[in-house]
Design goal:
Blueprint lengths: L4 E6 L3 H15 L3 E5 L15 H9 L9 E5 L1 E2 L8 E2 H11 L3 E4 L7 H6 L4 E2 L6 H26 L7 H8 L6 H6 L18 H20 L6 E3 H8 L3 H4 L2 H6 L16 E3 H11 L4 H8 L18 E4 L4 E4 L3 E2 L12 E4 H11 L2
Parallel strand pairs: 1-2, 1-3, 3-6, 6-7, 10-13
Antiparallel strand pairs: 4-5, 8-9, 10-11, 12-13
Helix pairs in contact: 1-5, 2-3, 5-8
């Protein structure tokens, strides 16, 4: 049973606010509550000497918003009568002060498509597929953070779980992957400010760790294929054409490797790369393609590089989201987590975006 969640919605347009909050409530049912933050009325904290960040932090610490699992905020909040000129940045700053995770969105999803995919530190979702699908995704995120919050106190009691990587490995039920998980934090300075300090109370430490670990999973492990692989990356790694990998009989062969931890999404599944290796190794076949052909369908086709169909892929272009071969791609960019060894950028895509991608 999923832990109950509390979602606080920030949207300054009434009809959109009602539509989104209604979709969230329908999707949640008895699994939690949704509160629309009142942006039109001056509260007792509306003191001229307080910044918007201060006022929001005070409001979010009081009923009915206190104890929020997730804040969901429109990227543009300038029509708020009690907070003229408010932006999602102020909401995010107040949330960071209180260690509350933030998810934001834009009413014009096409305009912010690139930002939605790449901005780190906040979880950016899109309305492009409609409000109901957006609500489904928000609830996946909220339940992910709630699951971390429910498990963390027990995990922290174990003496071996002292480092962030060890905590995360235990949280995911994969202590044997701790060294690989640690590689996803090497060189990442963005999260240091969010780590709890020794002088904080245990409850405060846990709150900050929930946000820290959740964003680590979302921003790194689930985003950059390596220890986990999405549908296209899994198919490429197994040497199976993506369209064939989507077939139920083929999926069933690799079902035991499905990721079911925080933020697991049945409509956007991920697999443990190490468990895929184990399945293939136990079968005695040289790769996933041969295993799928023998156990699911002999007509299964191999993966093809997006730049040269005569070559098998094996890797994943994170920009084009297509299978790519080692020879036809670039990897090891400075902004890739070191553990994301299946993450590449195809040569053509790299040439197109190289001024922005770096080395």
């Amino acid at each position: 049973m999923s832990p109950k969640v509390k979602i606080v919605l920030f949207d300054d347009v009434e009809n959109m606010r009602e539509e989104i909050s209604g979709a969230l409530r329908r999707r949640l049912g008895a699994g939690g509550v949704v509160h629309a933050f009142d942006l039109q009325r001056q509260g007792p904290e509306a003191d001229a000497i307080l910044t918007y960040e201060d006022r929001l932090a005070l409001s979010l610490s009081r009923a009915p918003y206190a104890g929020a699992t997730l804040l969901v905020a429109d990227a543009a909040l300038s029509q708020s009568a009690a907070y003229m000129g408010l932006s999602v940045g102020a909401v995010a700053s107040a949330a960071r002060r209180l260690a509350i995770p933030v998810c934001d969105y834009a009413r014009d999803p096409e305009r912010d498509k690139w930002r939605n995919r790449w901005e780190e530190g906040r979880i950016n979702l899109s309305l492009a597929a409609g409000v109901d699908e957006f609500a489904r995704q928000v609830i996946v995120v909220a339940r992910g953070f709630a699951a971390i919050a429910a498990q963390l106190p027990l995990i922290r009691r174990t003496r071996t779980n002292r480092t962030p990587a060890a905590l995360l490995a235990a949280l995911l039920g994969k202590p044997e992957y701790v060294d690989r998980i640690a590689l996803y934090s090497v060189g990442d300075q963005n999260r240091i400010a969010d780590m709890s300090t020794p002088d904080q109370q245990r409850k405060e430490q846990n709150r900050r760790l929930v946000s820290f670990l959740g964003r680590w999973i979302w921003d790194s492990l689930l985003r950059y294929p390596g220890i986990l692989v999405n549908e296209v990356a899994a198919a490429s790694y197994l040497n199976i054409a993506t369209a064939d990998f989507r077939k139920p009989k083929v999926r069933a062969v690799f079902k035991k490797a499905l990721y079911d931890g925080p933020f697991a999404d049945e409509q956007r599944p991920q697999w443990w790369r190490g468990m895929l290796d184990d399945i293939v190794a136990r079968s005695g076949y040289p790769d996933g393609l041969q295993l799928a052909r023998k156990t699911a369908n002999p007509k299964i086709t191999r993966s093809e590089c997006c730049e040269d169909s005569s070559r098998p892929a094996g890797y994943y272009c994170i920009i084009s989201e297509q299978p790519v071969s080692l020879d036809n791609s670039r990897g090891g960019l400075s902004w890739f987590p070191r553990g994301a060894d299946l993450t590449r950028i195809s040569k053509k895509t790299f040439d197109e975006y190289s001024p922005w991608l770096g080395n």
